[in-house]
Amino acid sequence: MEEVSDLEEQLASVSSEIQALGLQIQELLERQQLLVEKEQVLKKKIESLSADDGAGSSATSVEDWNKRDFPWSQKVDETLKSVFKLQTFRPLQLQAINVTMSEKDIFLIMPTGGGKSLCYELPAVCSSGFTLVICPLISLMEDQLMVLEQLGIASTMLNSNSTKEHIKWVHDEMLSKSSKLKLLYVTPEKIAKSKVFMSKLEKAYNAGCLTRIAVDEVHCCSQWGHDFRPDYKSLGILKRQFPKTPLIGLTATATSNILEDVKKILCIPKCLMFTASFNRPNLFYEIRQKPASFEACIEDIVRMINGRYKGKSGIIYCLSQKDTEQVTSSLQKLGIAAGCYHANMEAAAKTKVHKDWTLNKIKVVVATVAFGMGIDKADVRFVIHQTLSKSMENYYQESGRAGRDDLKADCVLYYGFMDIFRQSTMVVMENVGQQKLYEMLAYCQDSQRCRRVQIAQYFDEVWDSTKCNKMCDNCNSETSYEKVDVTSYCADLIKILKQAEQLGEKLTPLKLIEAWNGKGPSKLRVASVSPPNLSRSEMEELIVHLLLEQYLKEDFSFTAFATIAYLKEAPRANLLNNKKHVISMRMKLRSNKLDSSAEEVPEKVTSAPQKEAGNKRKQTSTAGKVTPNKKSKVPEDNPFILD
């Protein structure tokens, strides 16, 4: 019997090793797939560049359209100067305008602030008839219409708040050959749900009045995109019903795979596609450790606004409507001229905040993502994210509201441990919500690579970090990091999670940290697990690393009132059965190990007269830290935007 027992023990060991090897093989295969995809992207870019440089190529490359000898060229140049008060085109604007004026379909991928709207507004003014513009947000339409009104360009919109009289007037203008209406803005819902409007469009098409269709934020068509809108999928009917009307699709945020999906949805498989570089050289990207308390975070924001952004215009993005109201109220109490903007506000109230901010009557808009797509205010000096964005696309687009005048501006994101799981519970039901959130999380967690390199890689572009010019916190940092073996820490966390599972318990991220520190319920304590010699912020950083590396995973519980995120062991944790398996991560270099018994003391919120003295106290950890990013050399009087 003893021999059988030994053999069974050996069998269990071999089986465990086989399982571990299987996971390693799977990991290598996944890595191989990622490299193959990257290889394909690079090959396509090389082929594209080679085609552009080749002689005698057909009129499909960017350079073929960068000319001023088209029949409409003189009128386009004159209109640019006389109507839009501009002297030159930005990159790709002239090419895109020439394509759409030649009645060809085109997708234009251009960074936020690159001037996409001009690529359909200017052709609309230079053409007979009207251009139909599909926009996802009323705030975007209002912003465009305010600008067009100032320029004296006849334009209007139809939405759920339009009066019967206005609707009738628009329908009449759509069919009139003598109409001066140049741009008509509608939401995708209007196309999907209004048979009356589609009937009028068909009559306008037959009368030769429907000159062009512009689909803004075209990535919303794809269910794999970060802002999928079901009604956008209905827009394929436009090209089927009006095949001779050219379509221009515009976006700042879409990967090549998403754009291929959108081509099929919109029924324009052979459209031209022009892509501008993602890079905005005037923007400084910074990730800040978020203070533990709401009050400390607000005080940090107020110090920035009253310091480096004194008298400047900016946007603060929040996760929820409740957050926007709380942040706005707190800022106003501390003397900041701020206004709130979210989807559930009355239309008139939203419009007032929007106009007051545009006219600089208020300096800061505190908003959800309901505000911002396409907002065209040139002098926005800062965009602050009070919490983690749900995707890289969202973050890139929202942060891109800053510095549209090409002067230096800041993009600051507050990154807090609990925001991860709060955001996660909100995206868990989305098609690729979890995946996109983790990609955003990896961006925040990466404290070494140039922020622009990370953004470029996400959007399938190759970027040289030396071109950043220290315009991100990582490139501007001199902090040293060391590679740390965290295998034993991971093993301890897995032991705690297994213990909880045996007891029928579920652990939230906070409860897992408590148990790891030996402070939770005694039944969750594991004899072989000692409190780690790590600060609270390092513990949080390690858990995020293990989550991204798939040693831990989230598990969700749905109640009638909330969705709760728990942590549990992921299959990859079985690799720990192989004693040779090592998990490592880069951590900030420390000259002395922290005392694990030391408590982190959040900064006390004090009244205004006490603040200056209170802020001089030494902070023991990031839990209450309200100084700039621990890595960054950027001082409070940031030199990047005050020159």
Automatic annotation (TrEMBL):
Location relative to the cell: Nucleus
GO biological process, one term: double-strand break repair via homologous recombination
UniProt keyword list: Acetylation, ATP-binding, Coiled coil, DNA-binding, Helicase, Hydrolase, Isomerase, Metal-binding, Nucleotide-binding, Nucleus, Phosphoprotein, Zinc
A molecular function (GO) term: DNA binding
EC number(s) reported in the record: 5.6.2.4
Residues annotated as transmembrane: none
Cofactor: Zn(2+); Mg(2+); Mn(2+)
Region Disordered: start-end pairs: 593-643
Coiled coil region boundaries: 4-31
InterPro entries: DEAD/DEAH_box_helicase_dom, DNA_helicase_ATP-dep_RecQ, Helicase_ATP-bd, Helicase_C-like, P-loop_NTPase, RecQ_Zn-bd, WH-like_DNA-bd_sf
Record carries keyword Hydrolase: yes
Any one cellular-component term (Gene Ontology): chromosome
Start and end residues of each Helicase ATP-binding domain: 97-272
Catalytic activity: ATP + H2O = ADP + phosphate + H(+); Couples ATP hydrolysis with the unwinding of duplex DNA by translocating in the 3'-5' direction; dATP + H2O = dADP + phosphate + H(+)
Broad class of the protein's primary localization: nucleus
Stretches assigned to the Helicase C-terminal domain: 297-448
Family designation: Belongs to the helicase family. RecQ subfamily.
Protein name per UniProt: ATP-dependent DNA helicase
Organism whose genome encodes this protein: Chiloscyllium punctatum (Brownbanded bambooshark)
High-level lineage: Eukaryota, Metazoa, Chordata, Craniata, Vertebrata
